[in-house]
Amino acid sequence: MGDSPAIVQSQVQGDQAKGEEITSENIGTELKAPTLVQYKWWIQIVTYSIFVLCSQSIGTLLGRLYFEKGGNSKWLATLVQTIGFPILIPFLLITSTKTNNKNTEFKKPSVLIVASLYSLLGLFIAGDCMLYTIGLQYLPVTTYSLICASQLGFNALFSYFLNKQKFTPYIVNSLVILTVSSSLLVFHNDDSGEHSNKTSRRKYIFGFLSTIAASAGGALMLCITQLALQKIFKRESSRLIIEMSVYQSITATMAILIGLFASGEWKKLDKEMNEYKLGKILYVLNLIGTAICWQVFTVGAIGLIFKVSSLFSNVISILGLPLAPILAVIFLNDKLTGIKVMSMLLAIWGFVSYMYQHYLDDLKDKATKKGQLVELSEVSLIK
What are the domain boundaries of the chain? Predict the structure, then answer.
């Protein structure tokens, strides 16, 4: 999907179909075009990847810090994962509404379909964020982050059925290793750390199962998003990325606010802020920072789905998993045990395996385009 180098190939084939004359000058133009398109594509990929990696790591640490220093509201911790959407509204107003005009017969989906989609995704996000919150409350950052690696396995499974994702030996190897990586933590309970004094075995298991369920839900949501882009929107634009981020966040925020008031937790927030160990100002700054981080993460994740696929978006997310545990060890005095180190190394190995397959696919794609351009050049010379 997106502004990939494959656009050049379709343009060349389109010229042939129209019967336009192919000259040596045209061939030279086509040879230069892929490079320019590739640069633009990779710049966008790097930008969205940075959004995902940085915001995910910082957001996870801030979320854990909230519970470490006296925060206790699950609904509030869930709310800050979606309520940051107002920071995107200015971009929604100034972003160009121009779309990719490759499909001249593009027809906008009905308002009812779009509203239903955003409502479904928003409610799904609200429930998924709550599960992530429970996991983060009951588990250390290192354990929580590494368990989240299982999301890639779920994503691959859903991508196979919903997005027709092809599997290769390297991708299968990546999925198996990442699954083993998270499975190592099932029976590990940080007995040597301070969390063992605060978190019972029962809560640890509950947090573990919640994180696994959240990972499965997050993977399904990514695949549904990709399917919606392919079947409903059928277009690509920066504005659509912002729209999806804002509208689904609005729905999720409304659902979480209902839960916050229905549960009665809102009555305890004033006392919680006054008793927060780092003070009122840092309490508020923590919540604001967390909200901004997760909104930036949403934009980056959707952007990667646009440009490549839901599976690739998830792979970039998994790449950031080792960052949070390392930062947690440095800033939160989290314990990095031998099992966690092994799990982290396996997660990195699984990521490298997947990226190597992407590298092979890129080489194959370039070779195919080069061969087609050479054939066109030979045809033009014969004429």
Answer: 71-94+108-186+197-336
